[in-house]
Amino acid sequence: MLMNDFQEFERRASARVTLHFPIRLMAQTGGVTETFEAQTVNLGIHGLYCIVKRYVPVFAKLLLTLIAPGHDGQPAHVLSQVDAVVVRIEPAQPVPGGTEYHAALFFPELSDQQHAALTALLALHAPHI
Questions:
Q1: Cα atoms in the 13 Å half-sphere on the side-chain side of 89
Q2: How far apart are the C-alpha atoms of 52 and 98, rounded to whole Å?
Q3: Is residue 46 in a domain?
Q4: 106: which of 65, 76, 84, 90 is 20 to 30 A away, CA to CA?
Q5: Are 115 and 80 in contact (CB under 8 A)?
Q6: Is residue 6 situated within a structural domain?
Q7: pLDDT single digits (tens) 15-67
């Protein structure tokens, strides 16, 4: 496989939509619950890619609150809460003074309602999906 072929090869089963909006993440570590904000870079039905201001280890389980952006005169609102797992973080290790990490999150299981909410959000911003 040539390099150009490799760059065009997409492993994901579903499309991602470039979409920037805030999300809230909640993690439990040693009985302590932490809540922190992130910003999406892209979103798909099985996960998302986001920018976080702190390191989160791979395989960390998070509760993610999707805050749908305002659209067509409607204000931003909480769309859904879903369980997510960190499958990649860059840089891969905590960086002293590091203020930005890029994280890939996977949604291991969506209810029918969560799936419908995500599908509606994606369709709003990318009608071809």
A1: 18
A2: 10
A3: yes
A4: 76
A5: no
A6: no
A7: 788 888 888 999 987 888 999 999 999 999 999 999 999 999 999 999 998 77
